[in-house]
C-alpha cells in the first residue's frame, strides 16, 4: 500500500519524505489556505518540485463542468506529476464523468474525488480515472461500512482488470488508516498529524529504555572483566 500525505505544508512533507514513507501528495484549496499557501499555482509548483516524480493531486475550484475542464488543462501544465482532482458529481448532483473521460482521453491524470459509494467508484473507473478517492470518514458518517465499500471496489477493479487505484481519504483517526489498509486500499492519504501517532507507542519507548539500561550495565561489566584480565 502507498501512503500519500494530505497536506500543503512543505516542512511536514519534507519531514516525512525524509522518513522514506511518502509516495505522493494530495491537497485542495482549503488545505492550502490552512497551510499558508495563498497562490495555488505557485504553491502547486513548489509541491511538485518538492516531491519529485511522485504524484501531486490538485483540486479544481469550480462547480461548472466546462470550467473544470479549463482549469484542469491549466493545472496539468504546472508539472508532469500533477493529478487533477475532479468531483464525481458537482454540488447539484450533475455527473462529472464526462469531465473525467475527456481529460483522460487528453492524457491528463485524474483523481475522481468525493466518492461515497461503490457505484460512484465503478462509474469513475469506467470513465477512466487514474485514482478513485473514497472518503471513508464520510461514508462512516452516513452509517455505512467504509471497509466493505473499499473491499468491494478493490475486488471489482481486479476482477475486471482496470488500472484505477483506490485512494482512501477523509481519515479521521489512526484506526481509519489501519482499516483502509486491511480492506485493500491501494493508497491512503493521511493528514500529517496522524503520522507521529502511527509510529509512536509508549510501551515501545519503555522497551527501548530498558534495552539501553541493560546495554549500559552489560558494557560496564564487560569493561570490568577486560580490566581484570
- Largest β sheet strand count, sense and barrel closure: 8 strands, parallel, barrel
* Strand-pairing-aware structural class: alpha/beta
In total, the number of domains comes to: 2
Would you count the extended β strands for me? 8
| Biggest sheet: strand arrangement | 1-2-3-4-5-6-7-8
Descriptive notes:
The chain is built from 11 helices and 8 strands. With 229 residues, the chain is α/β, with parallel strands linked by helices. It has an 8-stranded parallel β-barrel with strand order 1-2-3-4-5-6-7-8, surrounded by 6 helices. The termini are far apart.
Characteristics of this structure?
2 domains, 11 helices, TIM Barrel
Question: What's the arrangement of secondary structure elements?
Answer:
Blueprint: E1 2-6, H1 10-18, E2 24-26, H2 29-34, H3 40-51, E3 56-59, H4 65-76, E4 82-87, H5 97-105, E5 110-115, H6 118-127, E6 131-135, H7 136-141, H8 146-160, E7 165-169, H9 174-183, E8 187-190, H10 195-199, H11 202-228
Parallel strand pairs: 1-2, 1-8, 2-3, 3-4, 4-5, 5-6, 6-7, 7-8
Helix pairs in contact: 1-3, 6-8, 8-9
Amino acid at each position: 500500500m502507498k501512503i500519500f500525505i494530505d497536506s500543503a505544508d512543505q516542512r511536514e512533507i519534507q519531514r516525512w519524505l525524509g522518513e522514506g514513507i511518502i509516495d505522493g501528495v494530495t491537497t485542495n484549496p482549503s488545505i492550502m489556505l490552512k497551510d499558508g499557501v495563498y497562490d495555488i499555482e505557485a504553491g502547486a509548483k513548489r509541491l511538485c518540485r518538492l516531491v519529485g516524480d511522485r504524484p501531486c493531486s490538485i483540486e479544481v475550484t469550480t462547480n461548472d463542468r466546462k470550467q473544470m475542464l479549463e482549469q484542469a488543462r491549466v493545472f496539468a501544465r504546472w508539472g508532469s506529476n500533477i493529478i487533477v482532482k475532479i468531483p464525481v458529481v458537482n454540488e447539484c448532483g450533475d455527473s462529472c464523468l464526462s469531465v473525467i473521460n475527456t481529460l483522460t482521453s487528453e492524457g491528463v491524470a485524474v483523481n475522481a474525488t468525493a466518492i461515497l459509494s461503490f457505484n460512484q467508484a465503478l462509474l469513475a473507473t469506467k470513465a477512466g480515472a487514474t485514482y478513485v478517492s473514497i472518503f471513508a470518514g464520510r461514508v462512516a458518517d452516513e452509517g455505512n461500512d467504509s471497509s466493505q465499500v473499499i473491499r468491494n471496489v478493490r475486488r471489482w477493479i481486479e476482477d475486471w482488470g482496470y488500472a484505477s487505484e483506490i485512494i482512501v481519504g477523509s481519515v479521521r483517526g489512526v484506526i481509519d488508516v489501519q482499516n483502509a489498509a486491511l480492506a485493500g486500499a491501494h493508497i491512503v492519504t493521511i493528514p500529517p498529524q496522524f503520522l507521529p501517532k502511527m509510529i509512536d507507542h509508549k510501551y515501545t519507548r519503555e522497551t527501548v529504555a530498558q534495552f539501553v539500561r541493560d546495554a549500559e550495565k552489560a558494557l560496564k561489566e564487560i569493561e570490568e572483566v577486560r580490566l581484570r584480565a
